């Protein structure tokens, strides 16, 4: 007997007196595979409720083969499952119901083609037992247990990665709309790997409108007097100018005459007290 069927011979030995029909042979094999997969039997019947005090077992309960139809209750991962077997001509149809979401799987077996005898070795009773066990796995068990396994995997907390982890930057670095790391900080210079996103650093000053990073680092507000060495308007600064405050010239540099006004002086006939800074 192969290692894939380990324990199946013992299962038949424990219920040999209850196996009287060929259908019973199939039930024993299905029960063995369920218990091998982690299911535990809690009795016969089709009650869809759990009290919480059930003691699961690897053994088939008494009376499991007394009826023409089969109905066995199992617990798997805290959920209730019901295995039913019903005849349809020469075929027996098994259903495994997951009661919490009513998901059900089906396995139809032609009894006369699969089961040769009701006693003897496994090879004598079910010559094609390997293919039958594979069908039980794919058609009866996996369809109602894969969802449970996938939900458990989804709920498993994943370790958090640092924002600068290469796995997170790999795809984002290809995004032309991505803002370089540190670009929002006044005076910050983008890292080398983002130069292709902002060629020649164009637009750098737009991220530092106040020019906090220095005269060469930005400042989208034009100030002609922040250049190297400073710059004064023609005729000097007006009276009352606060030292260090910005001054917007009213004409291009080099236009006008020395002194207060320009030529022509737009205020050549000012009102009395025009030079009063509080007017």
UniProtKB/TrEMBL annotation:
**Cellular component annotations (GO), alphabetically ordered:** proteasome complex
BP term (GO), one = proteasome-mediated ubiquitin-dependent protein catabolic process
- Spans annotated as Disordered: 147-176, 249-279
The UniProt keyword set, sorted, is:
Proteasome
Q: Where is the PI31 proteasome regulator N-terminal domain?
A: 17-150
User: Compositional bias of type Low complexity: which residue ranges?
Assistant: 153-166
The record's GO molecular-function terms, alphabetically, read: endopeptidase inhibitor activity; proteasome binding
Instruction: Name the InterPro entries on file.
Output: PI31-like, PI31_Prot_N
Q: Is Zinc-finger set as a keyword in this record?
A: no
Q: Does the keyword Cell division apply?
A: no
Q: Which family does it belong to?
A: Belongs to the proteasome inhibitor PI31 family.
Q: What is this protein called?
A: Proteasome inhibitor PI31 subunit
> Source species, please?
Megalurothrips usitatus
């Amino acid at each position: 007997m192969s290692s894939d069927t380990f324990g199946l011979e013992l299962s038949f030995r424990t219920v040999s007196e209850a196996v009287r029909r060929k259908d019973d042979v199939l039930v024993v094999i299905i029960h063995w595979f369920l218990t091998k997969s982690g299911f535990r039997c809690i009795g016969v019947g089709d009650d869809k409720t759990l009290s919480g005090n059930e003691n699961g077992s690897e053994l088939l309960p008494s009376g499991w083969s007394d009826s023409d139809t089969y109905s066995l209750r199992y617990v798997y991962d805290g959920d209730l499952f019901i295995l039913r077997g019903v005849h349809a001509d020469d075929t027996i149809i098994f259903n495994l119901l997951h009661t919490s979401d009513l998901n059900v799987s089906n396995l139809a077996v032609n009894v006369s083609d699969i089961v040769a005898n009701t006693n003897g070795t496994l090879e004598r009773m079910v010559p094609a037992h390997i293919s039958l066990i594979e069908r039980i796995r794919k058609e009866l068990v996996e369809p109602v247990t894969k969802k449970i396994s996938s939900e458990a995997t989804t709920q498993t907390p994943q370790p958090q990665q640092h924002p600068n982890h290469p796995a997170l930057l790999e795809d984002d670095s290809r995004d032309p709309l991505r803002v370089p790391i540190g670009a929002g900080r006044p005076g910050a210079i983008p890292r080398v790997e983002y130069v292709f996103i902002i060629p020649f650093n164009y637009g750098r000053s737009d991220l530092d409108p106040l020019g906090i990073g220095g005269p060469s680092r930005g400042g989208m507000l034009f100030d002609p007097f922040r250049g190297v060495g400073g710059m004064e308007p023609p005729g000097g600064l007006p009276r009352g100018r606060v030292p260090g405050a910005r001054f917007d010239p009213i004409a291009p540099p080099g236009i006008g005459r020395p002194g207060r006004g320009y030529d022509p002086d737009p205020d050549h006939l000012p009102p009395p007290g025009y030079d009063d800074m509080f007017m």
